[in-house]
Amino acid sequence: MAHETATFDGFPSGPYACAETLPNDIVIALRPMFEGHCNMEHPSPYHDTALRGIAPFERCGFASLESLYEWFDRYTGTLDECGFKVYVYDVPGPFVRSGRNRQAVFAADRATLLETFALDLHPVQLDMFGADA
Fold first, then answer.
1. In whole angstroms, what is the distance from residue 104 CA to residue 55 CA?
2. Which residues are CB-neighbours of 118 under 8 A, at least 6 positions away?
3. 2 beta partners
4. Chain-wide mean pLDDT for the chain?
5. Does the structure show a pLDDT above 70 at 35?
6. What share of the chain is helix, strand, coil (3-state, %, to 5)?
7. d(CA 57, CA 121)
């Protein structure tokens, strides 16, 4: 998840990393998410005991699209309205570190951009009663 106009060392940045470079109206719109994500369900890489921080050459991400949607579950509409998109990268395994709560960090210089697309505001949910119900 990143914003194309907010970059860090030329790399598109996510809502936490680029807050200082975004227009004030976007920061205000995202404030409830920033405040709601100050917990152990959404730890920073420094508070995630599996990651133990993030190096200057690393960027935050998710190993799967499902993990991204779980992390931002109540804020996808706001993030979409603010111009954030999903960026999909191919990163060799040795250059990715997985955290405890769905997040991952990866070496930006080893990431190859595969595609970008708008957030799906209505992710497919499993049918509880089967297709024939």
1. 12
2. 80, 85, 86
3. 85
4. 89
5. yes
6. 25, 30, 45
7. 31
DSSP per-residue letters across 106-119? EEGGG-EEEEEEE-
Q: What is the mean pLDDT of residues 110-115?
A: 97
In the predicted model, is pLDDT for residue 133 greater than 50? no
Q: Which two tokens stand for residue 121?
A: 């505001």
Helix (H, G, I), strand (E, B) or coil at 29: helix
In 3D space, the residue among 64, 54, 120 whose CA is nearest the CA of residue 88 turns out to be 64
Give the pLDDT band of residue 128 (cuts 50, 70, 90). Answer: very low
Give dist(CA 53, CA 90) in Å, integer: 22
Cα dist. 114→67, 73, 86, 111 in Å?
Answer: 18, 23, 11, 9
113-to-37, 86, 109, 117 alpha-carbon distances in Å: 27, 11, 11, 12
The whole-number pLDDT of residue 8 equals 83
Query: What's the pLDDT at 123?
Result: 56
Q: How far apart are the first and last CA of the chain?
A: 35
How many residues are listed for the chain in this entry? 133
